[in-house]
Amino acid sequence: xxxxxxxxxxxxxxxxxxxxxxxxxxxxxxxxxxxxxxxxxxxxxxxxxxxxxxxxxxxxxxxxxxxxxxxxxxxxxxxxxxxxxxxxxxxxxxxxxxxxxxxxxxxxxxxxxxxxxxxxxxxxxxxxxxxxxxxxxxxxxxxxxxxxxxxxxxxxxxxxxxxxxxxxxxxxxxxxxxxxxxxxxxxxxxxxxxxxxxxxxxxxxxxxxxxxxxxxxxxxxxxxxxxxxxxxxxxxxxxxxxxxxxxx
Length: 248
Prior knowledge:
Largest sheet: 8 strands, parallel
Order of helices and strands: EEHEEEEHEHEEHEEHEHEH
Number of strands: 13
Strand content: 25-35%
Mean pLDDT: 93
């Protein structure tokens, strides 16, 4: 007897929506999302679309009204709850346009709970487009089967970040001059955590002293090689996930 095909198929497109989803509701899709579904994927009435809202999880939508430039999806079933996300923040100095976009993508893919852009003395980006960063995180979540997006904070100056730092959250900062091995340092701390990555050229001496003066701060080394800021961010998050997060 032939096996019953999985429904919805694994090839079903996924779409992030801003409004909370519920069974029996409807979602109107227009603009670029509608163009992709209708013109690229050739979606037809009755075809499935997986929907997620970063709140209630993933739902099955079925195309009910298909027009030239928009469509209506009926929300028919709850497929799974929102992903559980480890309590890890990534605090990263903005870097060149394409590379900070890459950091935002990887923060989502790797399971970071919150992305905080941090302005330091050597930060070279004058203005950060947070809407673009969020769009990159949404695209990563759609492609990587995630139902949770990192919260995206507004850019904050380093001194303000340190002044208001939560007392119960460890702050691991990449310090190429004098840091403990990252895996050992991270494994020794339980509970909420954050990783702080500096800009091209690293933190200056005064910034390093200010960070080290924070009781929750722990300097870490990412190994014998000097890494670019974007590579350091991905490496540090991966190490934390493997020893203290949901990869452990």
